Amino acid sequence: MTAGNQDTALQSPIDTVVSDRAFLECPRWHDGRVWVSDLYRHEVISIGADGAVTVEATLPGDEPSGLGWLPDGRLLITAMESGRIMRREHDGEIVVHADLSSVATGKLNDMVVAEDGTAYVGSFGFEFKRDTPIAPANLIRVAPDGSFTVEASDLRFPNGMVITPAGTLVVAESMGNKLTAFDIGADGRLDGQRTWAAFGPDLPTESVKAAMSAAAVAPDGICLDSDGAVWVADALNRRVIRVEEGGAITAEVVFPTGVFACMLGGPEGDTLYACAAPNSSEAARRHTRDASLLATRVGATHGGRP
């Protein structure tokens, strides 16, 4: 890993946007509001500038995760447990957009939606427990009409994803100690798989515990800035780091608790939102309400998608 010249001086005070949540993931800035999924309250919510919370969708008995929008404004939501992509129609009805249960390796995970409505969705690859061996996972492409294809099958817990203006998909491999890139073809297919940034050597695969003990960074949710750098929520180290292609870490924002996803947004595009919680344990978070969405101004502005 190339450390680069890390800058922590850019950090402004950290504000709480919303609190008393179960576990927040996949923040998005859309239509002047910040949107986020609360897995264990089964809700997608949005928050306005006045702090008012709107429940945008509910998935009873399922866990919403990745969010994105079709060109006509309909919302897509990853339903983790059932292995489906749900769609919120203009009248608010929630319908199935794509049933990926036949190709999902474990739970579905985060998602990014391209400008034309093509979605890229990751999956766990295994049951996420401390003593579970690491197994490869599928990355799935979902066309705007709901048809789907497995584009890669060898990723280690594909998680947050961004699409650059040049048409590169960058994927955080949470159990791989790296960010992986693909070229997006005119038909949406992926090609040219390569390492975009490595944080260290390959991790052991005998268990989640062993992998996390050896990892320098656990890249979870990510977002892109207008200069092409990726901001990475480091699930191990209570921070969001700014990473350039090749692995240089050029900025770090430290938080008082664990952070698991991030997004640049706000009226000027320079607000860094972070999904925060004491840890990511499902057993601990499912029945608690101590997660929050935090925000701080940084010296970068939003770029790409989401």
Automatic annotation (TrEMBL):
Gene3D superfamilies: TolB, C-terminal domain (2.120.10.30). Signal peptide: none annotated. Pfam families: SGL. Keywords: Hydrolase. The keyword Hydrolase applies. Transmembrane segments: none annotated. Residues 25-274 form the SMP-30/Gluconolactonase/LRE-like region domain. Belongs to the SMP-30/CGR1 family. This is SMP-30/gluconolactonase/LRE family protein. It comes from Rhodococcus indonesiensis.
